[in-house]
Amino acid sequence: MLEKIDLSSKLDKEEYKKAAEVLRERLGELQRAAKDANMPVMIVFEGWEASGKGTLINELILPMDPRGFRVYYVRGAADDNQSAYWPPMKRFWAMTPPRGRIGVFNRSWYRLITDEADSPITYGDISSFERQLSQDGYVIIKFFLHISKKEQKKRLKKLERDESSRWRTSKPEGRGFESYDETAGKIDEMIQYTDRDFAPWTIVEATDKRYAAIKILSAVVKSVERGLEEYDFKRKHAEAISIDPPSAKERGEASRNEPDVKITSEPTVLRNLDLTKKIEIEEYNELLPKMQKRLRELQYELYRVRRPMVIVFEGQDAAGKGGCIKRLTQRLDPRGYQVSPTGAPNDWERSHHYLWRFWNVFPKAGHIGIYDRSWYGRVMVERVEGFTEEADWRRAYGEINEMEDGWARGGAIIVKFWLQIDGEEQLRRFQEREEIPEKNWKITAEDWRNREKWPAYEAAIEDMMLRTSTTFAPWTLVEANDKLYARVKVLRKSIHAIETAIYKN
Description:
Elements: H1 13-36, E1 41-47, H2 53-61, E2 69-73, H3 90-95, E3 102-106, H4 111-114, H5 123-135, E4 139-146, H6 149-161, H7 180-194, E5 201-205, H8 209-241, H9 268-271, H10 281-305, E6 309-315, H11 321-329, E7 337-341, H12 347-350, H13 356-360, E8 368-372, H14 381-384, H15 390-409, E9 413-420, H16 423-435, H17 445-451, H18 454-468, E10 475-479, H19 483-503
Parallel strand pairs: 1-3, 1-4, 2-3, 4-5, 6-8, 6-9, 7-8, 9-10
């Protein structure tokens, strides 16, 4: 594909100045409009070495308010000493700009595809990343700066002659013209597999820098304008459907209590659990220290083989998640695990994609990340309470599966626990928390309110189980009416998951 592009396009100085003046003024206006609309923008610059990325990025940001954008330089995995410890896409999730801001990338996640002999990511990983952000309102603009092999060689020779820029040609990629033809094939493939309507590529003929600058400015202006039009349409549509529907009384129907969310199927998975399962205190006291000792041994094995582990705890209020986490971690080396409690997102977290905060606390290689509630709030609490539009929480099943699949392919061991208790046991625990002063902090008015929505939550949990229990990240249902039984089952499953992953060969 690249060889078919005409690289002779040029723009004279007067034409450039005239066009640049208009486009720069418009870009400044659009940056302010994007901020007002809380619309995030990501602008990616890829291209041949010496194709002028730095110069053209400067041309782009010149008319913009520097408080509203950030430029990222993305190093290759070999130059990034953090890459060996976390999934490769983690650092790019961390770089996503908050709503209303612009992120400009001098090289990007594509560097791991084009520059790495054995790439740690796939085109599927990249498409999932860009699609999820786009569906969350991000405008993604991607440029590939194209120059000929002859032009690249000429520019690199010029850089070598200048002492202040000679360091650039000492890098391995600084001799790119020597493998230009081979790399061109990789770039063609990259564009072919990742040119999507939600994140299209713009090929920029970069031989003439004035021409390239105007093409980039024009493309950014058009893309941001289009993004704002779509944002305005979605906002007006949301306002139109947010008007409260008539009540049952207004419709002339009998008033009745019903869940806010329709029950899509009978929740048989949860109701078929045998919640009478229990373990005697004597057996528990014998098993607990042995299992905790074994888990600590396996923690060191995880560190030795550099495998991260993700342990998710979900369950009804008062199901015993805290007690299970306490026994799970009681004898672990505290340097090798982190417990991340998940509450309602704060303002900074809400300004990003909902998965952003979970990527940021993913455990590094050899460590254990324990989540007291998790990303599954998207398809439970946010669904039932109406905090998220139906299209968004329905889409979240696939997004979560993609995220967990990427983690698993990167070596993570993923264990997900759902702790189930019945309504009577929950009521008993709620009352106990109110009666015992030391436990008052555990009970809130929200807990009682959530209890009234039990049927709606059961439906949401059922759907979550069926849609997100996968071969690489299955759910384990824990019969939790008996706290001792639940703790032993959690420990036993965690031990089994590590042993299976490490010793399966």
